[in-house]
Amino acid sequence: MKLTWLSHSAFRLEVGEAVVLIDPFLSGNPAFKGDVEKVSAGVTHVVVTHGHDDHLGDAAAIAKRTGAQVISNFEICMYLSGEGAQNINPGNTGGTVDCGAFQVSFTQALHSSGITREGRSIYLGNPNGIVIRAAGEPTLFHMGDTDVFGDMALIEEMYQPKIGLVPIGDRFTMGPESAALAVQRFFHFDTVVPIHYDTFPMLTGKPDVFAAALQGSSTKVRIATVGEAMTF
Q: What pTM was computed for the model?
């Protein structure tokens, strides 16, 4: 499994024959300095955790251009279909969808989900975390945007994720200390990667604070640089 952090909550995941973009907020992202077409080359799937612009990002354009399958909740899939995505695979909280080389399970997340267009709010379903499982690979949990919640314990019990992608930016999600508490109290990750920070000035949470709060834990904190590829 090869995982490349593209800044914010965006990742490129290569697993088996699949190439997956998660929350592809690339165009207009001040922290992303790469080339959208290069990053999306060969993409077979696009996974979206929830319907905010900094997570939907380029999902519609990439899916339309590449034919990649979109995996998200029903409302987001319908919205992106209307924007030109031709291949959708909708699910919702508690469900699992088969994506060929891997499976996606939708978990709860404490957040909101919707976009504003011409001054009007468009509801895009409930926000989710996503669990990605593939045969012979460590289970990956992208928490999406969320606060701590007690039923994280059930996510651990049901899926036993080994890699955690954990939002730490504060204001809109957990901050570093509360994210560290969630990791320590509810999960047995081998590795956690802090995400959703340093993209905008309002996101004040810092990865070194997160790492310090997990010092002494058996979980490894991997502070990635933008564009860094990690192999698990």
A: 0.98
